[in-house]
Structure formats: C-alpha cells, structure tokens
From TrEMBL:
It comes from Chelatococcus sambhunathii. It comes from the Bacteria. This is EAL domain-containing protein. The lineage of its organism: Bacteria, Pseudomonadati, Pseudomonadota, Alphaproteobacteria, Hyphomicrobiales. Residues 24-273 form the EAL domain.
Amino acid sequence: EAKNAGRETYRFFASAMNDEVVVRTRLEAEIRAGIAAEEFFLLYQPRYDTHTMRIKGVEALLRWRHPTRGLVSPAEFISLAEETGLIIPLGAWVLRTACQAATNWDDIGVSVNVSPAQFRGADFVATVRDVLAASGLSPHRLELELTEGVLLEDTDRAGRILHGLKELGVLLSMDDFGTGYSSLGYLKNFPFDAIKIDQRFIADLQPTGDARAIVQAVLGLGRALGLSVTAEGVETPEQLMLLRMDNCSELQGYLMSMPVSGAEISALIEPQRVRRDDVEAAAIAAS
Ligand code: C2E
Ligand code: MG
Ligand code: MG
Ligand code: MG
C-alpha cells in the first residue's frame, strides 16, 4: 500500500519534471527564435515629478508578441532568459532600442532594467559605452535599474562594474527597494543615485500604519544620502496624496500612466516641450 503510493508519487514527480524540462526547452527555443523574428518590443512607463507632475523619464519594459500565445509579460520569460544566458543578447537589444528611442524625446531620461547575468556577463560596461556611442544619447539621460540580486555574488567585482558605469556618466538606481536582505549595505557601499520603493509598500499605504512609516523612513534615508526616491505602483489618489505630503521625489504607476508605446510617449511629452519652448522664447524676448 505505502510502497504503491510511493511509486505513484515518484511517477507523478517524474512526469511533472519531464514536462517541466519539455516546457523549458521549448520556451528557450521560442525565445531564441523570437529574438531572430523580432517578436520582442518595448513599452515605456512615465515617471513623474511628484509636485509638478511633469514627466521626468520613462522606464523601458520588455514585452513579447508571441505568434500563438499573444502578448507575454516579462514575469513569464525573464527568469528563463536569465538562466539560459539569452538575457545577454535580449538585454543588449533592450539597451540599444531604449537609448535610440530616447534620442527622440528631448531631455527626459530613460531607465533600463538590468538582470544579474547581463551585469556579470562579458564586459557590461563596454556594452553600455558602445550603445551610448552608437545612439548619441547623453549618458546622464540613461538610468540603469538594478535589483539586489545583481549585486549579491561578488561584491568587489560588482563595485568595479558600478564604478565603471558611473565613469561613463550614467545614473544607477536600486529597484524594488526594501524587498531584499541588505539594501542598506548596498546603498552605503555602492554609488547609487536613486531608489525605487517597491510597489508592495505603496500598495499598503494608509494615512497611518506600518507601510507609511516604512515609506517615510526610506524617504528620510534618500534625503540624508542625497538620492532621489521614486514610488513604484501608484494606483490611487490617496497614495498620491500621501506621497506628496511626505515629499517623495517621483511617482510611477497606473494612476498616472500604464506602460505605453514610444509614439505615445512622444505625444505625452509634446505639451511639456511646447511649454518649455514658450518659456525660453519669452525669456529671449525679455532679454
Ligand atoms: P520592475 O522593474 O519593478 O517594473 C515595474 C513593474 O510594475 C512593471 O511590470 C510595470 O508594468 C508594473 N507596474 C507599473 N505601474 C504599476 C501599478 O500601478 N500597479 C501594478 N500592480 N504594477 C505596476 P512588468 O512590465 O510586467 O515587468 C515586471 C518586471 O520584469 C520588472 O519589474 C523587471 O524586473 C522585469 N523586466 C521588465 N523589462 C525588463 C527588461 O528589459 N530587462 C530585464 N532584465 N528585466 C525586465
Ligand atoms: Mg524597474
Ligand atoms: Mg521595481
Ligand atoms: Mg519588480
């Protein structure tokens, strides 16, 4: 009886494992083919100045238009792309495409998510340098978003890469802040310019309670260290109001804008550009 059950359990796991291998192998082949067939594209989600509500920059977010499965989100393929090393060509494509797009957008910044394999892979600093040179984008307009996972392994080496990136003039932000184990240590040891507070803290924001206390503490930390702080995942007017009261620098979330196409970003920033041109024209006229 017990032996039988054991055999059944074994059979179940063996077939589940087999299926997983099959699924992963197929997905890997599909990612590879998808890169070649140009099935990947970027959406861009604006990041707003909390007080002026002007767009300060956009975050590039990868999407996959699969021939049969339709639109696939990064949650479904990034980790496999990471494990198989496919994230290296895919990530380089994201960097190139985002920097090229940003050259159409005047002076707003563009943020690109960097995965651990990409960061540790063969000369990431040289890749970023080449992409900047090819696109002509000013380095200060490119921001790289890193999670703690990127920095975990060899901290000396991570530090050298981060300083190499800073020497190029790009900005570094710590993504999903508050979800890791040693975010504070990383802020102390590495040259970050910005923090993005993880959306789970924003989701729980109430006028009183733990989430607000944590958000306020992170904002205080940002001020003390001279870092800009972005709140991710702002979905309600109440969250917006609390973040404004607490002087959070920048906001990103569905309340203001979903991730949208590059053409839509151009349309969204056009009024800002016109306003700025008016101010400049007035200043010239007055001088
Ligand atoms: P992330 O970098 O923390 O990006 C923020 C995620 O939150 C995005 O999900 C975005 O669409 C979503 N989001 C934005 N506003 C809201 C909101 O108000 N509410 C909620 N619930 N969600 C919101 P997305 O695009 O599915 O990306 C998920 C993750 O996949 C990203 O998290 C990032 O870690 C990764 N990712 C996306 N694109 C790339 C890429 O090009 N390279 C790498 N390495 N990772 C990427
Ligand atoms: Mg991000
Ligand atoms: Mg994040
Ligand atoms: Mg995230």
